[in-house]
Amino acid sequence: MNATSQLAACLADHPDAVGKVVDFDAAADRLYHFNFTASNTELDADTFSDTLKFDTWITRKLEENNCRYGIGGYMEHRTIYARSAHFDTIDEPRRLHLGVDIWAAAGTTVYAPLAGVVHSFADNDNFGDYGPTIILEHEIGGLKFYSLYGHLSKTSLDGLFVGKPVAKNEQIAAFGTMDENGHWPPHLHFQLMLDMEGKFGDYPGVCKFSEKELYLNNIPDPQVVLQFA
Predict the structure, then answer these.
(1) Within 10 A of 63 (CB to CB), how many other CB atoms are there?
(2) Structural domain 3-223, CATH architecture
């Protein structure tokens, strides 16, 4: 059983455990599905390499489609990571996205979709990195797992401590601006992990394509929790 099947089975037995990550209303909000693979020829390197141009492109897509939120990314093989040396390695660049990105305005509220405690947090302040990051630890039906929230505002880290209790649907953070979120257009990187592998305040959100099967055993599809249409 892979990570997605394992977590889905657990949450199916505890449907009341799952809340919201953002204020998305399936009945009222339209959702734009972004494509950051090589097949999207509209988004060229000149655009995604320049944070301001990239932000303008994202904002225009949401406005043209009358969408409050954009979404996409789980196990998506993306071209956009060529914008930062942070994703380069000697043998094979990291291009496979492990979480889901929710694109919306800076300041958008982030909630804990499940009760838990603060596992760790950090400001991963590198170009192309997460920026301010919070990781929560959850346990439901005997299954322990973790949720990661990246590209937050710096004030989202205020008052945190390891082990701090967090309630379902409690406001925990806000989307950061481009100047504080790792230099990306405002969005939330939301990711689930069964095992933190000893990491603290950080966990890879992008891996080498050759490692896909390995990460499928640890990274569930965030849609299991998001339940976006």
Answers:
(1) 10
(2) Distorted Sandwich (2.70)
pLDDT in tens, 69-97: 999 889 988 766 655 455 555 676 767 89
Report residue 193 as tokens: 């992990």
d(CA 112, CA 169): 5
The domain spans of the chain are 3-223
Tell me the mean pLDDT in the region 117-131.
Answer: 94
The string of pLDDT tens digits covering residues 177-193 is: 999 999 999 999 999 99
pTM: predicted TM-score of the whole model, two decimal places: 0.93
Closest CA to 96 of 223, 210, 224: 210
Terminal Cα-to-Cα distance of the chain (whole angstroms): 25
Residue 74 · residue 222 · CB < 8 Å: yes
Instruction: Give Cα separations from 59 to 31, 64, 178 (angstroms).
Output: 13, 9, 13
